[in-house]
UniProtKB/TrEMBL annotation:
The active site is at residues 8, 82. It comes from the Bacteria. It comes from Flavilitoribacter nigricans (strain ATCC 23147 / DSM 23189 / NBRC 102662 / NCIMB 1420 / SS-2) (Lewinella nigricans). One of its GO terms (molecular function) is fructose-2,6-bisphosphate 2-phosphatase activity. This is Histidine phosphatase family protein. CDD domains: HP_PGM_like. Gene3D superfamilies: Phosphoglycerate mutase-like. SUPFAM superfamilies: Phosphoglycerate mutase-like (SSF53254). Substrate binds at residues 7-14, 57, 93. GO terms for biological process: negative regulation of glycolytic process; regulation of pentose-phosphate shunt. InterPro entries: His_Pase_superF_clade-1, His_PPase_superfam, PG/BPGM_mutase_AS, Phosphoglycerate_Mutase. Keywords: Hydrolase.
Length: 197
């Protein structure tokens, strides 16, 4: 199968430095432009199925892409939501900066939110289903940076403790993987933003 992963366009909250997590977020003017550009970049790709996070910032990006694939089914799913940051959601990153153990602990296990291990397990379960259902298809996932990193970690055989090592996904970047029935993978491109230039 071919698996294409893209992150939503820039949001007003990204610009303001606000932690979004499960908050919907609103695409900024630049984010709308990025969504249009990634849609143009993907218009010539064969896409048999689109899965998108059901959060507005990803859903709006997916709808832009889907305009060029009118016969492709789009499914909006909670499994592709960003990491739930619990009580940190809606707060500015600048309020939480620092290297103290307390602040690192807050991010590691946000009250009412998910740990990175939980995000990894969610990504692994979703990916297992997608690979099982779409072995011979080209599938697009429209998601967020954190869950996107977790998906890439699962694909490349990294553990939940290595998620950050795969690097953050840029807004509307494209990563393409070819995955066989034995789950061996080939990276066609990773975190590509050429279409935004």
């Amino acid at each position: 199968m071919k698996l294409i992963i893209t992150r939503h366009g820039q949001t007003e909250e990204n610009v303001a430095g606000i932690l979004q997590g499960h908050l919907h977020g609103k695409l900024s003017a630049k984010g709308v432009e990025q969504a249009k550009k990634v849609a143009l970049r993907l218009q010539s790709e064969q896409i048999d199925f689109i899965y998108s996070s059901d959060l507005d910032r990803a859903a709006d990006t997916a709808k832009e892409i889907a305009q060029y694939h009118p016969n492709t089914k789009v499914e909006f799913v909670e499994s592709l939501r960003e990491r739930n940051l619990g009580e940190l959601q809606g707060r500015k990153k600048s309020e939480l900066r620092g290297d103290t153990k307390d602040q690192k602990a807050i991010f590691a296990e946000p009250k009412g939110g998910e740990t990175m291990e939980e995000v990894y397990k969610r990504a692994a379960g979703f990916l297992r289903e997608v690979i099982h259902q779409h072995q011979n298809d080209s599938v697009l996932l429209v998601c967020h940076s954190g869950i996107g990193q977790a998906l890439v970690a699962v694909i490349t055989g990294k553990s939940h403790t290595e998620i950050k090592s795969v690097g953050g996904l840029q807004n509307t970047s494209i990563s393409i993987f070819e995955i066989d029935e034995d789950r061996h993978h080939k990276i066609v491109c990773y975190n590509c933003t050429e279409h935004l230039k």
